[in-house]
Amino acid sequence: MKTNKNHHQTCSPSSCPYSRIGCFPDNDRAGQTDYENLKKMFGDRLRDMSKHYAEHKDLNDYLRYRNRAKQAEKKSQVQSVRRMPQPQPKKTLKSMAFHTLVGSGKRKTNL
Q1: Are the C-beta atoms of 25 and 31 separated by less than 8 Å?
Q2: Which residues contact 70 (CB under 8 A, 6 or more apart)?
Q3: For the chain, N or C: smaller number of CB within 10 Å?
Q4: pTM of the predicted structure, to 2 decimals
């Protein structure tokens, strides 16, 4: 988590009107330290959201992973649809009569 030197001035507990604040720290020692420092400032209003991406380095890493997984799923669905046998067009009486006449060598112009 990159810390802005001025973040204490811009989001002080007294000027923050929110009852809940989501915190998305990196899953490393520095991220945990930053979260603990913010928790001291904001108390129970601060929520640690890193549990939602605990298996990843940080939130960005998780979002990139999820995006790749969705793209792979879409690609898999498209490929499986392409492999499905496509239904043959239904033959109508008019098209059957045309194929019968053409196949027999007879010509009929009006159907």
Answers
A1: yes
A2: none
A3: C
A4: 0.56
